[in-house]
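ok here's the first one, seq then struct tokens
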Amino acid sequence: MPNAASLSVIFTGSVALGSLAVTALGARAQRKHEAGLAYQERVWDAKSEVLLNAIRVSLSIVRVVGARAEMRHLAESLVAAREYIDEFSAEIEAYGSEATRKALRDLEAKIQLTLIQSNSAGMLRSVRAWKLSKVEEQDYDEARKASADERSMLDAIAHNLTEDPPVYRDAAQALIDSARKDLRDPDV
């Protein structure tokens, strides 16, 4: 039969080993929890950035229509929105709710149809790049000609709008509303 001193040493050693095991398991769980939080933070940062960009682009359309600006300005907003949608549509598909994805596709379809009808949207990017290169070269006469070409292309787009301005505004507003909801309810 072991004596009291031996039992005390064995019991103390067992408690110490158990304590080390619990500490190690707790540290492992803490690291796993911190990694999960870091992942959620990265996802939230990406999601919120893309949703804010969607709101920003859509607001430009809503504001132009609301201000009853020239149709050329609406055409400019639609072209800019289309270019920007190309950049963030994959992220919306990844992070947006079903309602946000549907609103984006609806706005994108309306814009795309308009730009296809005008036949000028593709060349507009080239003219803008040419204009910027001429400004950088300080060839202001050519830059002025490029600006005139740019305005005429925007006028052609405005002339061929396939929808009334409020239709674009409503589609943009639907995207804004849905993106706001996604931002306010991160679990969507």
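and now the second one, same deal
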Amino acid sequence: MRFSKSILPFLLAACLLTASGCGAEKPVVSSSGTPQGTISASSATTPTASVEQQMVVRQTLTTLFNGPNAAYIGQSSTQVLGEGVSKTDSASRESLPDTPVQSAFTADAYSTFVANALSLYHGFAQDSGQRMQLKDDAVQVSKTDTGYSFTANVQYGKGESINQTAKITGTVQFNDSGKLCFFRIDNDSGLIKALQEQK
């Protein structure tokens, strides 16, 4: 009985991952949009992502790291509940910024992407007067057991002097419909901290 109670949370988590659409099989779609089969996460014989998935990751990184763009900075409202206690309401789905990559994400993943990455990088860059520029020729996307990993270089700095470079690494997953259902920056080499500095 004790064993079944301890394993129940793990079974529920596995069911939620399967139900959320970030399953182990990924669709391969031709440029015309017709399904060409699936890639199983267990068969990691292909070292790079499909061309279409690479394009989606590149477009997402370009949107995230070229700016700042004031239209991408999320709006939130803070309500004071009591002394020292406040509640911040993040932007609703209807008020999320329109970006070139919005349709490439599931609704939940896009909300998370905007809140955890897009509005932060663009907001900090704007507040500190810095600019970011993705070096598109240095973007690499590779297949992993659970999805895809990416590596990119982002140049940043104030004014015309964009002479510092941060190496960005992260992870993405596509669901069975070919939409991004997970996006995470694993390491930004201190970029977010550098963008917060008011030099």
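notes on #2: The two ends are 60 Å apart (CA to CA). The longest strand covers residues 130-143.
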